[in-house]
């Protein structure tokens, strides 16, 4: 079963591939209702941790600490980041793995997903367009460790653009490519992407984003206005427990999502946060006025993106306006964009070209499912269309960097010509080498993967001689060796005319060697030439 999963700040939404259709998954929580989303929540009490719907239910019970918006914390997180929740200290990756495991269980046992053979779930994951390497790595790694087969990662607005192109394909009459701007305002992040649509081909021209701006901020604004209206001062606000603050923000989120363009007053029940606090009525206009500066920030980012690529803003010179006409539509997605003021401010700038998604909260997941459906047929052709490389640890394991092995645009050898070859040499400092490969459509100026990202293989190699006969290295922890090893590691990569990628990893001077064919992550036939070489011999 192939799915697209939009790992949102407040909600996880999934869509699955069903013979050319891409329905959104419906979950059945313990209360027996039907929801088309799964909560991105963790709840902690003493030494217990629960996730998703269990965490949702825990907000009503005493003693639990409920944390929302885990995704926001990823921006500054690395592989070894620890998270403190109440009395527990747990690694970020463990939190994410446990959340993804709860999601997988609910997909298989408590959703309308058709029967899945052997529980195999192949997923395309969405990430913010401005996500850094660590965010992308942690997201893919968490889903993989939770038992998903990760096909790749795609920027969220790019996925929404694919959904737009797929839905609009039948009505599109233009022979030339269309250019749209995807405006994606979610629960915790904002992204904008310029996308070129040409039949089934989609090319992301450029992206811009704000890593910590979304619907969560609107919830906080409404909460502050409600507390002000009730005359609740700083002392009482500071006394709110984490659980009470969570309930307050959930009450504000529910009231915000019930708004429509004709709403004049907003009722907020502060008693949902603390018993005895009143219900207050606020003017919707006051709420929108407080939200306006945040929406304006998204407009600034959007206009900067357009102007940087030759699309003049409304009201500019005639030549710039002519260039702007190349923009066929501004496609609005994301739960945060449902706020009435967002559509109003966008139309003031972009006029009739603003098109609101019919699936505001699920367009990204649907686009990811479409991409997952097409992913099975992806092959390398006459040149590298993306950068291919491997994650490597840096700064003593506190961060992850990308090492590009074959750059985008590199010409493949003609049939009969020798393969392309790249090599790396270093002194290993871990007992096991953990190699995680990927390809990406773009690199940032700092060398980080960006654009569309496909996760490839995940292999392990025993640097420690004592582990050479271990049948499954994936069951052993990777540890840093303080004294190091008196070895030299050699990686030799080759790519033939057909685009087949291989790597041979060896240690010298002993000549211990393993060779692998590289493909999508966790392919069962990836190891092709296991064996031990004699000292001084040449690796395959």
Structure commentary:
This protein is of the alpha+beta class and 540 residues long. The protein folds into four domains: 2-157, ATPase, nucleotide binding domain (Nucleotidyltransferase, domain 5, 2-Layer Sandwich); 175-211 and 299-363, Nucleotidyltransferase, domain 5; 215-288, ATPase, substrate binding domain, subdomain 4 (Actin, Chain A, domain 4, Alpha-Beta Complex), CATH 3.90.640.10; 387-532, Substrate Binding Domain Of DNAk, Chain A, domain 1 (Sandwich). 26% of the residues lie in helices and 31% in strands. It is built from eleven helices and 26 strands. The strands form seven sheets. Strands 3-2-1-9-10 form a five-stranded mixed beta sheet. Strands 13-12-11-16-17 form a five-stranded mixed beta sheet, with helices on both faces. Strand 24 and strand 25 (512-518) form a beta hairpin. Helix 2 packs across helix 3 (133-145) and helix 5 (215-229) packs antiparallel against helix 8 (284-308). The protein starts with a strand and ends in an 8-residue tail after the last strand.
């Amino acid at each position: 079963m192939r799915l697209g999963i939009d790992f949102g700040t407040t909600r996880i939404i999934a869509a699955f591939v069903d013979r050319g259709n891409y329905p959104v998954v419906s979950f059945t929580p313990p209360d027996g209702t039907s929801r088309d989303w799964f909560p991105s929540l963790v709840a902690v009490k003493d030494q217990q941790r629960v996730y998703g719907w269990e965490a949702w239910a825990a907000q009503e019970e005493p003693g639990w600490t409920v944390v929302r918006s885990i995704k926001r914390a990823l921006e500054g997180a690395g592989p070894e980041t620890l998270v403190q929740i109440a009395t527990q200290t747990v690694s970020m990756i463990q939190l994410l793995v446990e959340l993804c495991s709860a999601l997988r269980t609910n997909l298989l046992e408590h959703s309308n997903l058709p029967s899945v053979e052997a529980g195999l779930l192949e997923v395309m994951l969405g990430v913010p367009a401005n996500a850094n390497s660590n965010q992308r790595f942690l997201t893919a790694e968490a889903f993989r460790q939770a038992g998903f087969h990760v096909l790749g990662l795609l920027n969220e607005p790019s996925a929404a653009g694919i959904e737009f192109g797929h839905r609009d394909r039948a009505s599109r009459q233009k022979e030339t490519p269309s250019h749209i701007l995807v405006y994606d305002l979610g629960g915790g992040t904002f992204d904008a992407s310029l996308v070129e649509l040409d039949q089934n081909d989609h090319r992301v021209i450029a992206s811009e984003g704000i890593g910590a701006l979304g619907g969560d901020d609107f919830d906080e604004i409404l909460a502050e206005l409600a507390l002000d209206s009730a005359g609740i001062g700083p002392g009482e606000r500071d006394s709110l427990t984490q659980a009470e603050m969570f309930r307050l923000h959930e009450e504000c989120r529910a009231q915000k999502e019930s708004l429509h363009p004709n709403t004049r007053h907003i009722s907020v029940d502060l008693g949902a946060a603390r018993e005895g606090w009143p219900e207050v009525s606020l003017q919707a206009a006051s709420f929108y006025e407080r939200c306006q500066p945040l929406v304006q920030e998204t407009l600034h980012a959007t206009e900067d993106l357009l102007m940087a690529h030759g699309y003049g803003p409304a009201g500019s010179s005639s030549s710039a306006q002519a260039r702007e006409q190349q923009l066929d539509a501004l496609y609005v997605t994301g739960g945060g964009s449902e706020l009435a003021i967002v559509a109003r401010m966008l139309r003031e700038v972009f006029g009739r070209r603003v098109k609101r998604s019919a699936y505001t909260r699920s367009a990204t997941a649907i686009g990811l499912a479409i991409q997952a459906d097409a992913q099975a047929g992806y092959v390398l052709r006459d040149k590298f269309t993306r950068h291919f490389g491997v994650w490597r640890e840096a700064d003593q394991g506190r961060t992850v960097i990308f090492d590009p092995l074959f750059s985008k645009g590199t010409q493949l050898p003609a049939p009969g010509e020798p393969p392309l070859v790249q090599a790396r040499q270093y002194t290993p400092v871990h007992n096991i080498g953990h190699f995680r490969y990927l390809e990406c459509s773009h690199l940032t100026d700092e060398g980080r993967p960006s654009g569309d990202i496909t996760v490839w293989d995940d292999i392990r190699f025993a640097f420690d001689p004592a582990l050479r006969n271990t049948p499954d290295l994936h069951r052993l922890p990777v540890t840093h060796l303080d004294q190091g090893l008196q070895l030299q590691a050699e990686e030799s990569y080759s790519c033939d005319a057909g685009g087949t990628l291989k790597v041979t990893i060896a240690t010298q001077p002993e000549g211990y060697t393993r060779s692998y064919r590289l493909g999508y992550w966790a392919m069962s036939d990836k190891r092709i030439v296991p064996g031990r070489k004699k000292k001084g011999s040449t690796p395959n």
